[in-house]
Specification:
Chain lengths: ~240, ~240
């Protein structure tokens, strides 16, 4: 190896070294900057989210309060009418329509995302609207008489739709954990869940599933305005179907 | 002398090699962190917007309730206007619960077995849920009104053929699903790319959608087999 060759190699080595130092420096500075601003954003956002959730909680409480106040006023009014037929009819229709809070025996099931781990398909770690829909159908097959998800009463028009990391029920968004309450025969409901193919599958993926029987479950009434959900419907008289 | 110089040179090259590898990893790592953080920020942003929208909706609902409350507070016994109002509320609740036949604009979705695949309960559930998500106000499957507790159950096996039970009634395909809602909107949502129609067709099922101006959907059967509430106690 000649002297000039050696010098040439050394020169090359130092040039590469120089480039390396420069590139590393930039990358580190960039990462630090990103980290700092990202961290700041995340903290600010988390704070806003907590605040919005708090406001939502307050609003929900106030809505519940007014719903029951109005219901009581109507009840008093009906009582004052001294009309037993009206009273009976009102109670029955409200019960059938899901516009009354009800309680009874049943089961409560809670679903939560699996703990994060490295797997090929990350979406297997999450609870999806599809899972909720299938579990609700399992409960209906087992004769559930009243159902709610995170306090939203299921009605004939209640959807369960995936909206990002949350699901939409009665046009309200909820994130995990999803808590489903079902009133019916606790043993039958419980067995149907334990044997549900979907729940067995979810457990295999590590999704957290908790099922509890209970002697007193309260399923709240529908909180929306029923009028808004019948705008396109006309009562069909005695026409032929 | 010459030998030691060569060794030194080799050493420098080895160190350089290690550094390049190290650096490559470090830069990759930094980029990963940055992209993870921006993704997380995006997610949080979305969550915040969703919460704020929900709060807006709830505030509007609260206002409605407060107005209703003022109206009810001023009600007196024997007052005919309040009585009429009560009757109206009762009728609204009855329609909402599916206790009366209704008609309106909507679509009729027909779902049938394909040559190789049969309709399964999940397919019907998907369509019902999709229709609800679009805002369908009344839905029936083969003239069975779909209410809150309506189940869709698949019974039987492949050799003897399967059938579907809805509201306790056995049915065979084709399934005629009627829904009342804005017809254009329903058809658009069902047939969008990646939508439920595309998915079911990919499975090999036959599915067709027709818009109608006058769809009649029957009330829920009132023989006690669908709407059961013997285990419910109203909370007052």
């Amino acid at each position: 190896m000649g002297n000039s060759d050696r010098k040439f190699i050394l020169l090359l080595a130092f040039i590469i070294l120089g480039i390396l130092v420069a590139v590393q420096f930039r990358s580190t500075v960039f990462a630090n900057k990103e980290k700092a601003s990202g961290y700041h954003d995340i903290q600010a956002l988390t704070e806003s989210i907590n605040k919005a959730a708090e406001i939502g909680e307050e609003l929900r409480k106030e809505i519940d309060d007014y719903l029951s106040r109005n219901e009581n006023l109507i009840r008093d009014y009906i009582k004052d009418q001294n009309d037993n037929e009206l009273q009976r009819e009102w109670d029955e229709v409200m019960l059938k329509a899901g516009l009354t809070d009800v309680k009874g025996k049943g089961v409560i099931i809670q679903l939560d995302d699996a703990k994060y781990r490295e797997i090929e398909e990350k979406s297997w770690l999450l609870v999806h609207d599809q899972d909720v829909k299938i579990i609700l159908n399992d409960l209906k097959k087992a004769g559930a008489q009243a159902l709610s998800i995170n306090g939203e009463r299921l009605t004939p028009v209640s959807e369960q739709v995936c909206a990002g990391p949350t699901i939409l029920v009665n046009q309200n968004r909820y994130s995990v954990p999803y808590i489903i309450s079902a009133i019916g025969d606790p043993d039958v409901l419980y067995d149907s869940l334990i044997n549900s193919e979907r729940i067995i599958l979810l457990k295999e993926y590590g999704i957290k599933v908790e099922i509890k029987k209970s002697d007193e479950i309260v399923v709240p009434k529908f909180k929306g305005k029923p009028e808004n959900y019948i705008t396109g419907l006309e009562v069909a008289g005695n026409e032929k179907k | 002398m010459r030998k030691s110089r060569n060794i030194a040179l080799t050493l420098v090259c080895i160190i350089l090699g290690i550094m390049i590898a190290w650096q490559y990893k470090s830069i990759n790592y930094n980029q990963n962190i940055a992209s993870f953080q921006s993704k997380r920020t995006e997610e949080l942003m979305e969550q915040l917007i969703e919460l704020q929208n929900t709060n807006l909706d709830m505030r509007a609902r609260l206002q409605e309730l407060q107005e209703e409350n003022r109206k009810y507070e001023s009600v007196r016994a024997g007052d005919t206007e309040s009585f009429e109002n009560l009757k109206k509320q009762l009728e609204i609740a009855r329609i909402f619960a599916g206790l009366v036949d209704v008609k309106g604009k909507g679509v009729i979705v027909t779902l049938d077995n394909g040559e190789l695949t049969d309709v399964e309960e999940g397919d019907i559930l998907d369509i019902i849920n999709e229709l609800r998500a679009i805002g369908a106000q009344a839905i029936s499957v083969n003239e069975e009104r779909v209410v809150a507790t309506t189940e869709v159950r698949q019974v039987g096996n492949y050799e003897d053929g399967t059938y579907i039970v809805i509201n306790g009634v056995r049915m065979k395909p084709p399934f005629v699903i009627k829904a009342i809602s804005d017809p254009e909107k329903i058809e658009r949502s069902l047939t969008m790319i990646g939508g439920v129609v595309e998915k079911l067709e990919k499975f090999g099922l036959k599915i067709s959608i027709k818009q109608h101006d006058n769809i009649i959907i029957p009330k829920v059967r009132d023989d006690g087999s669908v709407l059961k509430y013997d285990m419910l106690t109203p909370v007052k």
